[in-house]
Amino acid sequence: MTFTPKKPNSALRKVARVRLTTGIEVTAYIPGEGHNLQEHNVVLIRGGRVKDLPGVRYHIIRGTLDTLGVDKRRNGRSKYGAKRPKA
Q1: For residue 67, what is the DSSP state?
Q2: Average pLDDT over residues 60-67
Q3: Which fold has domain 1-87?
Q4: What is the maximum alpha-carbon separation in the chain?
Q5: Which ranges constitute the DSSP H helices of 1-87?
Q6: What is the pLDDT of residues 10-63, one digit of tens each?
Q7: Domain coordinates of the chain in residue numbers?
Q8: Among 1, 42, 50, which Cα is nearest to 20's?
Q9: Long-range contacts for 23-30 (Cβ within 8 Å, ≥24 apart)?
């Protein structure tokens, strides 16, 4: 699903509704360009809100469990679960 940010920003930010093991359902942000998430995928989340999305207080960790890393990512790879590119 997508949310639109607060003023003055404009975009379609990718988010997911996640049910935690405690049974609570939260909204988590999906960082990076593109993702492979579908319904019933298992994801790992971390804290950290998204400043321009009200109510989004968690981030999904890329490259773990059912979430793939970002393709063709060269800088800041560790934050997006991307492997080192072949020289």
Answers
A1: P
A2: 96
A3: OB fold (Dihydrolipoamide Acetyltransferase, E2P) (2.40.50)
A4: 45
A5: none
A6: 999 999 999 999 999 999 999 999 999 999 999 999 999 999 999 999 999 999
A7: 1-87
A8: 42
A9: 26/57, 26/58, 27/3, 27/55, 27/56, 27/57, 27/58, 28/56, 28/58, 28/59, 28/60, 29/53, 29/56, 29/58, 29/59, 29/60, 30/60, 30/67
